[in-house]
Design goal:
234 residues, alpha/beta, three-stranded antiparallel beta sheet, 52% helix, binds 2'-deoxycytidine-5'-monophosphate
């Protein structure tokens, strides 16, 4: 079957990465969490006191950032490495969530990340999640999904995720953070979060993870068959 690119975009904490990970594993595809790339960049900027109003400092910082994903069989997940160091847990902390939208709105940062992401998708057979995957990174992806969910459901899910990592954060603080990020992500000039015209909307408010996965898998199979047929016809 012909390999395709599956682009999953949407608001924070709608279940994008949970869904994308399982879909990728079921299809034997690679999974790239682009939010992790922006988070790792934010961590680097934070650790090195990068002045985000200074284009030269940003450029220099980007040249020194190397982000990789390495599969951890014990945890059964891909983990994010920043310059050789495992930063998977650090980048999920609230202080990074509070700064990441600002860093990811920087034009230079986006240009750099989008180019890296496009390189990763050269061979197809990829599920990538983020905010601008179907619009800027892979505008011709065979399948585009746009995920959304009710704010309280999103906040509750994020709280549970943090609790599993032994981080206790109040629901109000989470709602405030998500609301702020939604606003910054949708209103920035570069690669704003918006639904691609040809994206399928997936509202996960009342859905289980299995249902979300099935929704994407069913569409994927259809798109793979379509792509296969278009090769035969052409
Ligand atoms: O998916 P996430 O919550 O881990 O993403 C963290 C932040 O990174 C999010 O607030 C916006 C930004 N981001 C982005 O601007 N573009 C992407 N493709 C992915 C994430």
């Amino acid at each position: 079957m012909k390999k395709i690119i599956i682009a999953i975009d949407g608001y924070s904490a709608c279940g994008k990465s949970t869904t994308a990970k399982i879909v990728a594993s079921k299809l034997g595809y690679a999974y790239i969490d682009t939010g992790a790339m922006y988070r790792a960049t934010t961590l680097y900027f934070h650790q090195h006191y990068v002045n985000i109003t200074d284009p030269k400092a940003i450029h220099k910082a980007l040249e020194n950032i190397n982000i990789t994903f390495i599969y951890n069989p014990k945890a059964n997940r891909n983990e994010t490495y920043l310059n050789g160091l495992n930063v998977e847990d650090e980048i999920r902390k609230m202080y990074i969530s509070e700064q990441v939208s600002e860093v990811s709105a920087i034009k230079e940062v986006r240009k750099y990340m989008v180019a890296l992401q496009q390189k990763m998708g050269k061979k197809k057979g990829l599920v990538m999640d983020g905010r601008d995957i179907g619009t800027a990174v892979f505008p011709s992806a065979e399948l585009k999904i746009f995920m959304q969910a009710d704010m309280h459901v999103r906040a509750f899910r994020r709280q549970q995720e943090l609790l599993e990592k032994k981080q206790v954060v109040g629901i109000e603080e989470i709602i405030e953070n998500i609301t702020k990020r939604d606003l910054l992500d949708t209103t920035r000039e570069e690669g704003p979060l918006r639904k691609a015209e040809d994206a399928y909307v997936l509202d996960t408010t009342h859905m289980t993870v299995d249902e979300q996965v099935d929704f994407v898998i069913n569409l994927s199979v259809g798109k793979m068959i379509e792509s296969q047929n278009s090769i035969i016809i052409n």
